[in-house]
Every structure is written in structure tokens, then in C-alpha cells.
Amino acid sequence: MAIVSLIVAAADNNVIGKDNKMPWHIPEDFKYFKKVTLGKPCIMGRKTFESILDMLGKPLPGRTSIVVSRRGYAHEGAKSASSLEEAIEIAKKTVGQETDGEIMILGGAQIYALALEKELVERAYVTRVHQEPEGDAYFPELGPEWQEIERDPYDGFSFTVLECAKT
Ligand SMILES: NC(=O)c1ccc[n+]([C@@H]2O[C@H](COP(=O)([O-])OP(=O)(O)OC[C@H]3O[C@@H](n4cnc5c(N)ncnc54)[C@H](OP(=O)(O)O)[C@@H]3O)[C@@H](O)[C@H]2O)c1
Questions:
Q1: Beta bridge partners of 56
Q2: N or C: where does the chain have the smaller number of CB atoms within 10 Å of the terminal CB?
Q3: 10-residue mean pLDDT series, the chain (167 residues)
Q4: pTM value?
């Protein structure tokens, strides 16, 4: 059975983005993100996909990108879904060919909120960035059903993993 996880870098005030970009540059977090997501189907909102295109000029290499959009978004090298549920169904079909059956939700704010509200996520990889920047995109506050199972502190940020007791 495939497990659905999310991955996010969120400041202590839950800011995750400003002007469709990340408000910090943490190379260790990019490495961690790559390690956790490589080879896995990655679901993201259309705006997050576009911010990746701005950064890399192409979709994330070595991962199947599944873009959630209400308006039939099409881009070479990415699959498109008109709802989060449809994106998860598409991802389930690809996990058979990819590593360890984990489907990753990469954000952004709208897609994290939707996934948590609908209780579609079992595990959360949260890089806590110990800053309080200004922003316009936020990660939702996780409820008490989310238990931290790992914490790896570094200078200025901590890698944490949480699991949901409900799902
Ligand atoms: N720090 C982090 O880890 C992290 C990770 C990811 C993103 N971010 C940041 O988050 C920000 C982007 O987040 P965002 O909330 O603005 O955008 P987003 O969640 O990436 O994408 C929003 C888009 O998703 C589609 N969508 C949303 N709800 C939908 C639904 N119910 N059904 C179908 N499609 C739906 C819509 O696309 P259409 O308009 O095409 O219909 C909507 O415009 C950026 O600042 C980015 O840098 C940060």
C-alpha cells in the first residue's frame, strides 16, 4: 500500500513562501528534499510547479511531477490532475515502478491545506526554519493528532518527521 506524505520547509511562524518563492536559501534543506523525494511521484499545486520551473527551467529531475490545477494545466514532462484525489490516483499507478511506495505532496499552501483538511496525509517531513520572515503563503498548524517521531537539529533549522495518529 502506498503511503501519502508531505514535505515542507516552514518557518517558526509557519511562513513557507513570499512572491511565489521560498523566503530563505538553505542548501542542506535542498539536499534533504532531494534525498526524501527522489524516485517518488510528487504532487504539487500549479503555482508551486511554476516556481520550480522558474528556479530550474524544467520539472524536478528523477521524479514524476503531478500538477494539480482546475484548468487543465499541461506541461512537457509533467502529468496533470484536476483534483488532489485524482493526483493521488495517478501517483498510485506510478509508485509500482518507483521506490518504496511513498507518494509525496510538495505543496504549496493551498495544496497542503487541502490535503490536511481531507486527512489524506499520513506522514509529514517538516523542516522547521528558525526564523520569523514575512510571507504570503503559510503551512497550516498541525493538530495534536500529529506526533513528532524524529527531530534532527542543525544550526538555524531542524529536520522533523511527524506521523498522523488518525490516518
Ligand atoms: N517552503 C516550502 O516547503 C514550500 C513548498 C511548496 C511551495 N511553497 C511556496 O508556496 C507558495 C505557493 O503556494 P500557493 O498556495 O500560492 O499555490 P499552490 O498550492 O502551489 O498552487 C495553487 C494552485 O493549485 C490549484 N488548486 C488549488 N486548489 C485546487 C483544487 N481544490 N482543485 C484543483 N486545483 C486546485 C490551482 O491551480 P489553477 O489556478 O491552475 O487552477 C491553484 O491556483 C509559493 O510561495 C511557494 O514558494 C513553499
A1: none
A2: N
A3: 94 97 96 97 97 95 97 93 97 73 96 98 98 98 97 98 88
A4: 0.96
